[in-house]
Write a structure and sequence with these properties.
Layout: E1 2-9, E2 17-24, E3 29-34, H1 41-49, E4 56-61, E5 64-68, E6 73-74, E7 82-85, H2 97-101, H3 110-123, H4 139-151, E8 157-161, H5 169-186, E9 189-194, H6 197-203, E10 206-211, E11 214-219, H7 221-226, H8 231-236, E12 241-251, E13 254-259, E14 262-267, E15 275-280, E16 285-288, E17 298-311, E18 314-320, E19 324-330, H9 331-337, E20 344-350, E21 354-359
Parallel strand pairs: 3-9, 3-10, 7-8, 8-9
Antiparallel strand pairs: 1-2, 1-4, 4-5, 5-6, 10-11, 12-13, 12-15, 13-14, 15-21, 16-20, 17-18, 17-20, 18-19
Length: about 350
């Protein structure tokens, strides 16, 4: 049994949003819609929930049309049996925790409703908070209640729209860890919208990368993050360095690339092409003050520090190495190196840390 979506939604003041994908509905799995803010992720979620109506195409769940432009069929939200959790918890302020969770169970018997609410209080770590109102809860507790409310009627699909975005990092990490175990125990299929790399990698089983209203790449999160298939995808996925190069030679499964006059060595993906983008994550670039001789299968580039951006425990170091290069190192490493803007530096990059994206034609 599958959800099959192939639809478009047009906006007069924005881009066309297009979705084409499918996922299983009868087993646990988290599909992540990943992309920058404004690319259309929430619009796709709203169309799946029935909160927004596409302009063309169709959405089928287990061969039942939720939306079909050809026939005019449109199933309203309350008949799709879909749970939805917003970025903000959107709890009912006049109801306590128990009342919020039980809100969608009004057609259940009193005994079944009581049992289901108690079960979710336990699963979501909310025991002892039953009589608290939303104003008495922390941000993380509010999101737990919102998720319990969405899960209470046993939906066939759960939609999560950046549910951790309003939480501080410790609360978000704890809830992410616990939520996956709860959803797996319930065998709940999930679509999660996020632009957070950690969320995508820690929660996702399948990732759909979105850019400018369209799904441009799909696969497991580790596959997509490791092997973007376009320059735009590489930039979206956090590759700090994306530089155009020309092919200087091939030997023993390696490419020699020229970025201007600077040579890089990278794994050869095969195929015929003369130019390619060399994509390098900041985490793949280590730094040292002085060159210390050749190291097997490494690129060693002399450069100069152009900027330092402190990001808590990490520092993003920008350099001019004949082309703009970025490194992401710990603040302790930065202190040990005593880096300052203008300093000479050597960047070390393993060949396998350079991802090659051929430029067609």
């Amino acid at each position: 049994m599958a959800l099959r979506a192939n639809f478009t939604r047009d906006f007069s003041s924005g881009p066309r949003i297009a979705a084409e994908f499918q996922m299983e509905l009868n087993r646990f799995g988290i599909t992540v819609l990943f992309g920058a803010s404004g690319c259309g992720k929430t619009t796709i979620l709203r169309c799946l929930a029935g909160l927004d109506r596409p302009d063309m195409g169709a959405i089928f769940a287990e061969d039942v049309p939720w939306f079909d432009a050809a026939s005019g069929r449109f199933v309203p939200p309350h008949r799709r049996h879909v749970g939805y959790v917003f970025q903000e918890s959107a709890l009912f302020p006049h109801l306590d925790v128990r009342g919020n969770i039980a809100f969608g169970l009004r057609d259940w018997s009193s005994q079944d409703r009581t049992h289901r609410v108690s079960e979710l209080l336990r699963l979501m770590g909310l025991e002892g908070m039953e009589r608290r109102r939303p104003v008495e809860l922390s941000g993380g507790e509010k999101q737990r209640v919102a998720m319990a409310r969405a899960l209470a009627p046993r939906p066939r699909l759960l939609l999560l729209d950046e549910p951790f975005a309003s939480l501080d990092r410790p609360a978000a990490e704890q809830l992410r860890h616990e939520l996956r175990h709860v959803l797996q125990a319930m065998k709940m299929p999930v679509i999660l919208v996020t632009h957070n790399r950690d969320e995508a990698l820690s929660l996702g089983d399948h990732l759909l990368l979105m850019r400018e209203g369209c799904i441009c790449q799909g696969g497991s999160p580790t596959e997509v993050f490791a092997k973007p298939d376009s320059r735009e995808a590489a930039e979206l996925l956090g590759f700090g360095t994306v530089v155009r190069t020309r092919i200087a030679g091939r030997t023993e499964g390696l490419l020699r690339l020229l970025a201007g006059e600077i040579e890089l060595v990278a794994p050869d993906p095969g195929g015929e092409f003369n130019e390619a983008y060399a994509c390098i994550r900041g985490e793949g670039v280590s730094l040292e003050r002085h060159g210390s001789g050749a190291v097997t299968q490494r690129n060693r580039l002399a450069g100069r520090v152009t900027a330092l951006h402190h990001l808590g425990p990490l520092v993003r170091v920008q350099m001019d190495c004949g082309f703009p290069l970025e490194s992401l190192i710990t603040s302790w490493a930065c202190e040990d190196l005593a880096l300052a803007v203008g300093d000479p530096i050597h960047a070390l990059i393993k060949a396998t840390a350079v991802i090659v994206i051929p430029i067609e034609g």
